Amino acid sequence: MKAPARHNDRRKAPDRETAEPPRWAQRLLRWYCDPDLLEDLQGDLNEFFDRHLHEKGPRRARQIYCLDVLKFFRLYTIRKPDWLTLFIHWIMLGSYLKTSRRSLLRNKLFSSINILGLSVSMSVGLLIIAFTVDLRSYDDFQEKKDRIYRVITTYQTPEQPPMDLASTSVKAGKRIRELVAGVEDVVIMRSGFGGDAHVGETVVPLTAYWADDAFFRVFTFPLLKGNPATALKEPYSVVLTEKTAEKLFGEADPLGKVVRFDTLNYTVTGVAKDVPKFSHLRFEALVSFATAEALQAKIDPNLQSWEDIWQNYVYVLLPEGRDVQSLQATLARINTAENAAIKNRTFTVALQPLKEAALGRRLSNAIGPTMSPLVVWILGGLAFVVILSACFNYTNLSIARSLRRSREAGIRKVIGALRGHVMGQFMTESVLIALLALVFSFGLFLLLRTQFLALDADLRNLVSLDLSVQTVVYFIAMAVGVGLLAGLLPALFFSRVNPILVIKDVSALKVFRRVTMRKVLIVVQYTLSLIFITATVVGYVQYRSFLSFNLGFQTENILNIPLRGNKGNVLAKELAAIPGVSAIAQSSMVTSLGSVGGTMMKYNNPADSALVWLNLVDEHYLPMHKHKLVAGKNFSLRPRNGEESEIIVNEQVLKRFNIAQRNPRKALGQLVTVDGKKMTIVGVLKDFHYETVLHPIKPVMFRYSAEPGGYLNVKVASPNIAATMEQIEAAWQTIDKVHPLEAKFYDDQIEEAYRMFSGMLKVIGFIAFLAICIASLGLFGMVVFTTETKLKEISIRKVLGASDSSLVLALSKGLLSLLAVAALISLPATYLFFDKVVLPDIAYHPPIGLAELLAGSLIVILLAVLLIGSQTLRAARSNPVKNLKTD
Amino acid sequence: MKGTNLGEFEELVLLTIAALVSEAYSVAICDELEKYTGRSAKLGVVHAVLNRLEKKELVKSRMGEATSARGGKRKRYYEVTHAGKVALTRSKEVREAIWRVIPGFNLEGSL
């Protein structure tokens, strides 16, 4: 930085001539500081600056100067508001509004570009605000929300990365209750209670938590009937929500009545108000935790073990004014003491504030709906980028056509307006336009809301996006913010206008001085638009490849029916009678959808065991899905449950254990140990995708079970699928009257397994659409403006003999090269983003093709060329005489 | 403002102003404080305290002459007012009164 001349007099040593405090920091200080204190402060900072310059060098001195300027920003140093200026603003408001209205109406094209762009972009902002407000209001109804913490667990084994779980062990809860003096209350809960509730003839499937009697002391779930202190005390007590009680008992008073689950009778001890939507704990009923302890032997023999961390949830309530930190030490002591007794694994418990249960980092075994703050930040960031783009348009267009308005600003200044007043006027105008845009964007928001919620059932479950006073206040605040942001640069520009110059000769105004800035803005806008559209197209191609991926087996026309506790063989018999059903198989799970389950397998070396994914199937499963056997054959024995001796594995298993030098033929007949049983390998399957294509293929085994009890896989071969479905439904009805049939076609399920990607694509695609719209609007405005201002130039060229096409080229050359720059930046950026960030996480994916990389950009650039071309052609075709005559 | 009671740091600053006589301006006060206490006195903190002392009317200030140092900016010199002197004397008396009642042996070991 070169020192300005006016400072030279007080620089003694020539080598320090270049060292100056940063200009922006000086300006900032001058801006915020009370004029009474300013000189003194500046002097002190200068003195320190000189001192640091000697001691620490110019770089550090500048840094310290900046920091000090920021640090001096305190209540007593801030410039007191100038009441006179504010008062003048107030009385001038009417005049500002009037001129704003006139200018809006006079330039209908520019006004509509601005309002349209702002409202379209702001509608996304509104959506994100409503989304965030909903997420943040989770568990707000809990009166003790600030004092409730959840106990979470980190599970670490030597071979795998640590796993963070929202659940913990019952023992952790009990130890905290015993050992920690400063805890007011501890709730111990367990998930997984589910079954059909029988009351007389009524049968209702219910899911519930086991919860102990502290539940109602800690959480705010008011009881309509029953005593909260004792409702969950005794074993076999159940508390129903209002809705459940009505389903089971209708109008009758349920208190004291009996509900039967399976063979056990439970007494209704309370009726709770229905759970609010924004609660991370959602239940239809609560069963006393004492029941779980009474049934321990049946449901989970390890219930009280420190290692049983998968299904239990513990919440602690701290006394008022108690700090969490003070508890950590005790928790650490419990962790060390308990982990000392086990080998090779550690379970570490920690506390998490209640408010982070819904909107917090992802934990396994989460209870209720969760959303990661990162997703919210990304969505917010995208919305911000789009809004910023619309603000660019406003800024760009306002400055570009500032000729007329600057005369107005000049006149106002001559009449006596100060810089601040002119700034105020233009800021008012932009805020006004933003508020006007808010009205439109609100309408768009209502449309978008239904679309957004329709994206995914989980989203509907998570948020409702209803309006509240809070959201409306945020909406207005956002509009005002957007107005201020968009209007800042134009306002600064107009407030600097030199009245004498402007009034004397408007052409002296240096409108074109900011051409570079405008070019940069256009490039930024188009770069972002192209990145979004290319990402959408590339992502879509990848997504399609997941759906049509060759999984190594056939899924076509296979209907998977979850048995929901019914006998597989009974249903299979019923379905076999339907003519449209060509084959029926049974399996414990449906592969390739993302869910996994496995057990440990051993080969010759008893010390070497590995987790192998598992599916229990009957003899029809492999042929029906057309799994390819590299060697061997399908299960030949049909043992009863628990007595099987045959196993079919994939090639990865041979590789993992190096069975028979990985030779499938020689591997047949080899023995492996699973669940303590020796089993013979009777078949080796070609590797197939047990998990989704995001994950590499791992060792998999198939074991035989005549009735695995999970799913019925039904191959439908019928010209009339709807009729066959109806028959299947009818067959289901004869067996199960309580649960509805949940049959789904395999291909649909695969599509569902990747719906996270389709949702993401829709969101990014929509953002891309908006970004392109806004960028195109802005470009259009610029083209209109440029051609208008260059009309005379064009006419003269034409008179001198230029052809239409050469004129169009001359006019659009500049803008087209900007688009080329944008494409040159965005395409490699998107490619690198996918290549280095997204795709490495996906095990099986096609390479990024040149076609999909270019397709989006071509469309956008074609659109831009069309916009530029139509306008420039119009200008080029206009009659030069008409344009030159008027002057 | 919280009455005329002096905080510990306020008292130190006030004393320093008195000690510097006619040369008491912010940077000099900082340096002097650093010299006496051995701790670094932050300019921002000293400024805030000076501002508060002036509000309490314990000090008054005037602008000095412009010189070529400090980027041509004038210094603000501080001077202890009568009220300031009273406050200082009072706080000294309070301390001395308490010191007097401390039995000598209580502090012997710690010094």
Automatic annotation (TrEMBL), chain A:
Biased composition (Basic and acidic residues): 11-20
Domain ABC3 transporter permease C-terminal: 382-499, 766-880
Domain MacB-like periplasmic core: 111-333, 556-730
Keywords: Cell membrane, Membrane, Transmembrane, Transmembrane helix
Compositional bias of kind Basic residues: 1-10
Membrane topology (UniProt): Multi-pass membrane protein
Transmembrane segments: 109-133, 374-397, 431-452, 472-494, 520-541, 763-786, 807-834, 846-868
GO cellular component, one term: plasma membrane
GO MF annotation, one: transmembrane transporter activity
InterPro entries with a match to the protein in the record: ABC3_permease_C (IPR003838), MacB_PCD (IPR025857), Macrolide_Exporter_MacB (IPR050250), Permease_put_prefix (IPR047699)
Keyword DNA damage set for record: no
Span list, region Disordered: 1-21
Compartmental location: Cell membrane
Record protein name field: ABC transporter permease
Annotated source species: Fibrisoma montanum
UniProtKB/TrEMBL annotation, chain B:
Domain of life: Bacteria
InterPro entries registered for this protein in UniProt: Tscrpt_reg_PadR_N (IPR005149), WH-like_DNA-bd_sf (IPR036388), WH_DNA-bd_sf (IPR036390)
Residue ranges annotated for the Transcription regulator PadR N-terminal domain, each copy included: 18-89
Protein name, UniProt field: PadR family transcriptional regulator
